[in-house]
Amino acid sequence: MRLRLLLLPSLRSKLHPPPRHCCSSSPITNGVASRRRFSTEGSAPRPVIGPDSVEVLGYSYPRDDFTNVTPKILEKVGRNLHNQSHHPLWLIKERIKAHFYSSYMGRWGNPLFSVHDNLSPVVTVEQNFDSLLIPPTHPSRKKGDNYYLNRATMLRAHTSAHQSDLVRSGLDAFLLAGDVYRRDEIDASHYPVFHQMEGVRLFSNHELFSQVKDGHQLSLFESGGRRTPQKQETHTLEAVKLVEFNLKQTLTRLITNLFGDLEVRWVDCYFPFTHPSFEMEVRFHGDWLEVLGCGVMEQELLNSAGAGNKLGWAFGLGLERLAMVLYSIPDIRLFWSQDERFLKQFRVQDIHQPICFQPLSKYPPLHNDISFWLPDDGFTENDFYELVRSVGGDLVEKVSLVDDFTHPKTGRRSHCYRIVYRHMERTLTQQEVAVVHGQIQQDAESELGVQGRY
């Protein structure tokens, strides 16, 4: 799950962007936004990156030395593919939501799990990392892996950024879907914006043990305990085993609903915000496929969110990953396509109707190489990938490092990358590609400090 999938939202009135500052009508210091637009009706104004501020979703954020969000990325904010009716991501989200609505009922016959799918992707750094017990030195915080508006504010790297606020609001069972943002490599299965869906369920002592013989004698917590591979120091082993059983049963039913009967296995893993933690894999077309991550929530998270008397589980999954597998979609860029030949294949009467994507005519690729000496003061590959995305956008299908050379005498290093260009909806010309490629070369030298070898 790679810090990618767990934990969740709060009531919209409490989390409307920017979180925790939604009632302010005057500028807020310390890197937080000032409000430029008070009406929530209609579409949000176009994002703007100015010399001193970044404006997104109606808020203005002061720029500083951490600001690294790009216009190409801000164009995606507010698209909300997971909420566009009959989009493949919407279909997956609705299938998961329908399963939880029909399978889990509250005391009065209403759905047990509430659903939150319209929370702002702009969050504080504290929400994205600190609230999830992610250490200050953890590599997932790196500027090279995230999109920062400034040192205090960023585009969420996982929907888990909302979990503490939601638990604090008093909810015990909920689902969240939303867009998340990460700087990453460029290929058919990676994109800087993707979508996650997560679930959280909390149990009181009575809820967990009410169906257990002599359950009134059992407890969620113990004093003087120790942390082991099976449990946290404050949890009783019987409580953890019941929560773990409920978690795995819930997720096995969900995946069976999506894929049909499949062989399932659980792999022990590590996440900062759960213990014990697991990845769920299914046997699909002969291969083991990782579909989600999950675990027993760290009690410190619940304590800090005002739910210290409860114990809970959380899971998270990627909507694109499921859609690509279930619908045989070969390229992640297709989810952003507005080509009617793509979109019409998902306009079905029943969200459970099987769909096998019929590939569009695949236009021929063009590939150009770029080779340069690396600067002496350091080079981050994700910075180069981000530059390529900023210039080439969705014309770029893949970027691969094809040569890493160190000069035997000077010790200087050079990289050679192969950039594959392919338009999703038409044939590119060499002349078009030459213009884009030339701009990438020029910007790499001016912005990254490399020295061209072309």
Explained architecture:
GO terms for molecular function: ATP binding; phenylalanine-tRNA ligase activity; tRNA binding. Belongs to the class-II aminoacyl-tRNA synthetase family. Its EC number is 6.1.1.20. By secondary structure, the chain is of the alpha+beta class. It has two domains: 12-327, BirA Bifunctional Protein, domain 2, CATH 3.30.930.10; 366-452, Ferrodoxin-fold anticodon-binding domain (Alpha-Beta Plaits, 2-Layer Sandwich), CATH 3.30.70. It is built from twelve helices and 18 strands. The chain has helices at 12-15, 71-74, 88-103, 125-128, 163-168, 205-209, 237-259, 299-304, 319-327, 340-343, 381-392, 430-448; strands at 34-35, 48-49, 53-56, 59-62, 114-116, 122-124, 148-150, 153-155, 173-181, 193-203, 264-271, 274-284, 287-297, 311-318, 366-373, 396-406, 413-421, 451-452. A seven-stranded mixed beta sheet has the order 5-9-10-14-13-12-11. Strands 1-4-3-2 form a four-stranded antiparallel beta sheet, with no helix packed on it. Helix 11 (381-392) packs across helix 12 (430-448). The radius of gyration is 23 Å and the shape is globular. The relative contact order is 0.13. Mean pLDDT is 89; it is low at 1-29 and 36-42.
